[in-house]
User: What shape does this take?
Amino acid sequence: TQLLEQSPQFLSIQEGENLTVYCNSSSVFSSLQWYRQEPGEGPVLLVTVVTGGEVKKLKRLTFQFGDARKDSSLHITAAQPGDTGLYLCAGGEYNFNKFYFGSGTKLNVKP
Amino acid sequence: KAGVTQTPRYLIKTRGQQVTLSCSPISGHRSVSWYQQTPGQGLQFLFEYFSETQRNKGNFPGRFSGRQFSNSRSEMNVSTLELGDSALYLCASSLGPGQEMYEQYFGPGTRLTVT
Assistant: This one.
């Protein structure tokens, strides 16, 4: 079983639409990261959240860490074809230097 | 600052052969982790090295091994290759344990194809 569950697994939307991707766990994490990966390349770190309830914005992307530090969401406003890719969340336990990855959300934004 | 580099980027091997992949972490990073990524299984953790010591290990057979050198560079080795070992192998570097803003930075990966 996956420690981090992401939903939805696949998402195909039109350019200009909004979307939200969820990352849920029953475990508490020291920090949570979101990555975007394009085919054949390594994941690129988008953001790290460490405080329960924290909200971070990166242009049209809004990231939120749950109050209990067990879940997170990624919201994209007015999606563009350049947002297409695999979005991965990862929870970190810094004392043990361990990372747990979600299964990913494959996003396709059609022009 | 240069990012994580992995060599080679692409590799084609035959079943039964062995392969060595190399990873150079970001300067100053002392922890290196290796992952296997396949369409069916997603990102699977192989092992993690810090200060030349393996600290964590995933659930992979003993054919998969690794090491880290004093300059933090790391190599992973897969012996007796099987068709199912075809995957994108990713290396990620981080500062190391005990860092509050614990973040991993990935290299571009090595695409291994076993025929």
Remarks:
- Chain B is about 0% helix and 50% strand.
- Chain B has a mean pLDDT of 92.
- The CA atoms of residues 11 and 112 of chain B lie 5 Å apart.
- The longest strand of chain B covers residues 42-50.
